[in-house]
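Hi R.,

Here's the chain you asked about this morning:
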Amino acid sequence: MEQTFDYKHELLNRQMALRAKIEESPIAGEIKMGYGLDFYQEEVRSMGLAMIRDGWDMEGEQPILQYVHEHYPTRSRDELIWINKMMHYLEVITDTFIDNLHAEGYRWLQGNVDMPNEHAIFYPVHDLDAFGKLAQELGLNTLVDLKIPNPLEQLPGWIYYRSGSK
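And here is the predicted structure, written out as tokens:
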């Protein structure tokens, strides 16, 4: 129980910091969040998956599904599918994996949450998508340049290929 409280406390702190960054942004009033394109959802996803990886299966799924049920009630089934995919396809970031990304011509790792965050989920991109561009406009640190080796050393988090990115 104590450990799940720590996860939830960290999640609340991260969401408050995210809210402050968004509210400070000159484009704050123009932001339209949607399922899978919601910075708060991504914070919940990262923390929930961390809890699942650490053996807290139901306790990890619960906040993810609660968030989706509250904000995107018609997408609960999609979220269960997403959780299942992430538990099967997430990879640990290794030097070999980074070398393979270089060989495949990827330019960045785009994270789902503001860094630093040991539970970040990255996916390789050739070009920034709309979510990545919005994160930049908000001043969120979600990109890792694959050409700069220092941030790649001991990069915490997990990585996966998005559908259609390979």
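One quick note: The helical segments are 2-24, 39-53, 57-71, 76-89, 95-103, 130-137, 149-152.

Cheers,
M.
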